[in-house]
Write a structure and sequence with these properties.
The chain is α/β, with parallel strands linked by helices and about 475 residues long. Helices cover about 30% and strands about 20% of the residues. It has a five-stranded parallel beta sheet, sandwiched between helices. A five-stranded mixed β-barrel has the order 14-15-16-18-17. Strand 12 (about 310-315), helix 11 and strand 13 form a beta-alpha-beta unit. Helix 11 runs parallel beside helix 12. The radius of gyration is 22 Å and the shape is globular.
Amino acid sequence: MSQNPPDLRPDLAPKARIAEPNRPGQPTIGMVSLGCPKALVDSERILTRLRAEGYAISPDYAGAEAVIVNTCGFLDSAKMESLEAIGEALNQNGKVIVTGCLGAEPEAITGTHPTVLAVTGPQQYEQVLDAVHAAVPPSPDPYIDLLPASGVSLTPRHYSYLKISEGCNHKCKFCIIPDMRGRLASRPHKAVMREAERLVDAGVKELLVISQDTSAYGTDWKDRDDKFPILPLARDLGSLGAWVRMHYVYPYPHVREMIPAMAEGLILPYLDIPFQHAHPDTLKRMARPAAAARTLDEIAAWRADCPDITLRSTFIVGYPGETEAEFQTLLDWLDEAQLDRVGCFQYENVAGARSNALPDHVADEVKAERYHRFMEKSQAISEAKLQAKVGSRLEVIVDEVDAEGATCRTKADAPEIDGNLFVDEGFEGLSAGDIVTVEVDEASEYDLWGRVNESGQTNFSTQP
């Protein structure tokens, strides 16, 4: 399984929304962005800063005077993919600056690729700029180099990731994110809202709220007015008129207080929650809250308050010490929880993670077998839930339109990680960013098909 999905790799910024042609002599930089949406936001910030200094963004290696590779370092497989991307950039361009999570281990990069120009860690924007300046000196023209008010975006213009904090205070044994990105550091409420307002003003129809621990947002502030600042932030974001989707929400008790905003339609009825496992002993070895039974109670309470809520999560199988009985508990829990969207990883050792030292590591063939059993179970649940939607009318956002049809998403689907709804008839008048009502007439394990409901159509186009 690739840890860096191709659609989250805007290699050399193919989707960057900079319409102006390069002026003669303008210095040009390329970008490869790997890993999670949080890294994608970092890439957008780097490119925005460079664009403000007069750099052009190249759509290919050959047109760039240097290439920035923003790496992923969460799993060893992702590290290998990052090293391969660095090698590819070196072979095709020659001048490469490395940043991101793998940059926290510079020797791992320089040991394999000693000719890289510089290595910086995550969020080290100033060091990245310094490295770019050294490799390709800036040459701004204040009368020509105009930066769009919304900055440089690497996602389609109708949705955008909104990062509300950095770092994490959890000490999960399998994770090294706190070592790479530090402890929780929340952005000020006003700063988040200003960015969100600018994005919506620029035509963004969906805000994807991300962080390492979204429900802990603001709890690092000593003198805060609200005990749980994510609650007023969610409501304020919901007042902007865009879809607001919550990612990486730990199931703390106060999350229940967010559900009424979903039932009211202020924010999308969607929660992305990293449960990771269900057996209390496994969770204890992971150094995560061992409260799987209470979590089922929370799920029941959320659904009671908002019956349309969609729950997505990811799990780890084959964690050190996981017995067949513990894995079976996870399958039984999944049967009871009936989550709508589920992802799964086979456990991997990660350099620096405390879980590496745990006893009783699970054999690779056992991990693979459990992974397939888990996915078979989750697929059956997903298929049943989607079949139940056939005949219903759903509001969808259009992501892409080509000669064959329109690729859309329902409120239950996040971009890149969840399913799609396809419209293959009567789609000619649709454009990316439109929000329309669709009648569902077919379903598979992960996707839906439907037709635009002409009588009840709502259409909020991003087109001027």
